[in-house]
């Protein structure tokens, strides 16, 4: 993207399904730790605010620690956490000698040697970027079956409401952030389920026996059914109890992604399919999606099932995942990104007046690289058609024909990304600074004042990347014209399901509309929409009214004007993907509320209306 407002999260869960000794003998004691490291590292694209790892040991005698957790907001949080865990292993190896390879000794003497692992990568959407807000969140209890660790890729639109429900229950949550609220809600029903089983058996068994019965009978599906029914949001939520039951629950519209793989050794869950493929090298086809409204539940004996726990809604999985967040190494995502690039070709050809000879194509690294390949494939196809026409008409002489046949679209690496960070994912306060210094260019590869430069990016959110960096840099090459192409449609509305885009004024498309309303003296539309938002029952998104008076092209044109600062001499044009073509490229991932304003839950309408109210009242705060 060019100036994205990013925020996402990634989850990773591993459940060893055989005794730990089996893995120690077959792969060595570090097996699960290394696998989790890979699963997380291969998803680091999803979260750079912080990371966390939790571990639960099964069947540990009382008196020994069975839950461990590390979290970090370090610059390299994954490395930092695994360094600390490795240190524990090294110490244990030194102290234990041959005992290091014995399950019982290892579990009793070294933390993070349990059979159930939970990893998380965070981009905060609620609360600050502090270690306290990193996942896994932990709700500890002296009864194993009541202890709970939760980590998720989620955002709730109705935290206030969920918070009130908890306080009405008499609880006293320590913070009003969605991570705490969600964990306390699940924790509350986990307590109730424990109590229910206890009540049913208290007359027949001793308390110690009942603990064992609870471990066997605890039904996490039932807990989730009750805990999640008031959730309004997008989520892929994973949790482990102190006894080692595990779950991963996915929201009713399938907004956030979650995938799993299982064989007789492991059950593995990750946000992204490719992470599982790379870490475990299993057949791609054996990695399944956790279905929307379903939860994968793993018992303490390692049995697992995927079942529905909530009424499904129309499937609306997030298309932004496909365009930007997820790794493009997933074969389906790769194909979709290429198609996005290809579908833009007719509009680009129009914009360059079919003059391929004087056009140089390039892309903004890194995510847009794949759509660039698709765009170039489309250009090649166009060229082949043109060549065929010329051959058929045979109007050209040999020399001219040879020139035509040997002509290739001109491709150059014009934009270089110097920092590895995904700037979208950096917090707002530091983003502009980072963006300005992240990119560089290749000099003297274009014909000055003659060439048009076409640069594709995956998305334009705030426009910061363009305004503060890309356009200034490209203009130094002195092209006649710069065309910025976005493989995503115009981002017009907030996200409230896990991507941190919640303030209207952040969106360059919204700022363009404000400018157009002012120019056309239609500012009354803002006031009218504001009144509607204030009095709304939130069954409608009233912010659509603000965009309605203008065509897609008018808004694109205004965006081009806004990002073109005075010192830029080249002509600037911005071309956006249409929503229709996005759905052609990615037909199964129809979640498009940030482009269309069609939110899959009522909470979404509430968030967009509130975001607009906040804007009108000058409040620079998140709308959920
Ligand atoms: O319009 P803006 O708000 O500036 O956001 C859009 C930019 O942010 C992203 O880049 P990022 O550096 O995060 O990631 P990438 O290297 O994966 O493309 C994205 O690819 C765009 O270039
Ligand atoms: N991006 C996410 O999934 C964020 C998770 C959670 N809402 C948090 O703020 O930590």
From TrEMBL:
Membrane spanning residue stretches: none
Keyword terms: Glutamine amidotransferase, Glycosyltransferase, Transferase
Top-rank taxon, per record: Bacteria
EC code: 2.4.2.14
InterPro entries hit by this protein: GATase_2_dom, Ntn_hydrolases_N, PRTase-like, PRTase_dom
One Gene Ontology term of the molecular function aspect: amidophosphoribosyltransferase activity
Domain Glutamine amidotransferase type-2: 9-301
PANTHER family: AMIDOPHOSPHORIBOSYLTRANSFERASE
Name used for this protein in its record: Amidophosphoribosyltransferase
């Amino acid at each position: 993207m060019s100036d994205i407002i990013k925020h996402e999260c990634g989850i990773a869960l591993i459940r060893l399904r055989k005794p730990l000794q089996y893995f120690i003998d077959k792969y060595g004691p570090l097996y699960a730790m290394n696998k989790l490291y890979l699963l997380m590292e291969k998803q680091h694209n999803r979260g750079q605010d912080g990371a966390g790892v939790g571990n639960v040991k099964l069947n540990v005698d009382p008196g020994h620690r069975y839950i461990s957790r590390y979290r970090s907001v370090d610059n390299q949080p994954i490395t930092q956490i695994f360094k600390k865990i490795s240190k524990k292993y090294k110490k244990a190896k030194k102290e234990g000698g041959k005992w290091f390879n014995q399950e019982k000794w290892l579990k009793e003497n070294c933390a993070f040697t349990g059979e159930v692992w939970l990893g998380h990568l965070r981009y905060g959407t609620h609360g600050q970027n502090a270690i306290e807000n990193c996942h896994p969140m932990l709700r500890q209890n002296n009864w194993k079956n009541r202890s709970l660790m939760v980590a998720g890729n989620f955002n709730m639109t109705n935290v206030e409401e969920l918070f009130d429900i908890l306080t009405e229950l008499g609880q006293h949550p320590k913070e009003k952030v969605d991570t705490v609220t969600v964990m306390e809600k699940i924790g509350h029903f986990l307590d109730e389920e424990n109590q229910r089983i206890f009540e049913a058996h208290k007359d027949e068994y001793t308390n110690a026996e009942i603990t064992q019965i609870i471990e066997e009978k605890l039904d996490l599906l039932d807990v989730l059914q009750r805990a999640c029914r008031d959730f309004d949001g997008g989520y892929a939520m994973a949790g482990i109890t102190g006894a080692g039951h595990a779950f991963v629950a996915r929201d009713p519209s399938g907004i956030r992604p979650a995938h799993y793989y299982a064989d007789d050794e492991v059950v593995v869950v990750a946000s992204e399919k490719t992470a599982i493929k790379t870490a475990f090298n299993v057949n791609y086809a054996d990695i399944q999606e956790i279905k929307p409204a379903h939860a994968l539940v793993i018992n303490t004996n390692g049995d697992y099932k995927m079942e529905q726990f909530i009424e499904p809604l129309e499937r609306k999985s997030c298309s932004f995942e496909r365009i930007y967040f997820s790794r493009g190494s997933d074969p389906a995502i790769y194909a979709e990104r290429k198609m996005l690039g290809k579908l833009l070709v007719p509009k680009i050809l129009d914009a360059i007046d079919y003059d391929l000879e004087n056009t140089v194509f390039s892309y903004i690294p890194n995510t847009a690289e794949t759509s660039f390949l698709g765009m170039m494939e489309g250009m090649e196809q166009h060229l082949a058609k043109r060549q065929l026409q010329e051959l058929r008409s045979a109007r050209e002489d040999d020399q001219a024909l040879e020139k035509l046949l040997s002509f290739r679209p001109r491709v150059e690496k014009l934009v270089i990304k110097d920092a590895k960070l995904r700037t979208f994912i950096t917090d707002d306060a530091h983003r502009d600074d980072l963006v300005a210094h992240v990119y560089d260019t290749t000099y003297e590869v274009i014909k000055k004042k003659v060439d048009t430069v076409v640069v594709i990016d995956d998305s334009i959110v705030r426009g910061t990347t363009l305004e503060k960096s890309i356009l200034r840099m490209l203009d130094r090459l002195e092209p006649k014209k710069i065309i910025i192409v976005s493989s995503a449609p115009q981002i017009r509305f907030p996200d409230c399901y896990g991507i941190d885009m919640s303030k209207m004024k952040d969106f360059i498309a919204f700022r363009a509309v404000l400018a157009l309303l002012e120019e056309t003296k239609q500012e009354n539309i803002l006031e009218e929409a504001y009144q509607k938002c204030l009095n709304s029952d939130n069954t409608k998104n009233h912010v659509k009214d603000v965009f309605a008076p203008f065509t897609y092209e008018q808004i694109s044109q205004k965006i081009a004007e806004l990002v073109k600062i005075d010192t830029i001499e080249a002509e600037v044009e911005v071309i956006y993907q249409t929503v229709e073509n996005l759905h052609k490229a990615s037909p199964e991932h129809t979640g498009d509320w940030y482009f269309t304003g069609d939110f899959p839950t009522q909470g979404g309408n509430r968030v967009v209306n509130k975001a607009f109210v906040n804007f009108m009242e000058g409040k620079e705060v998140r709308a959920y």
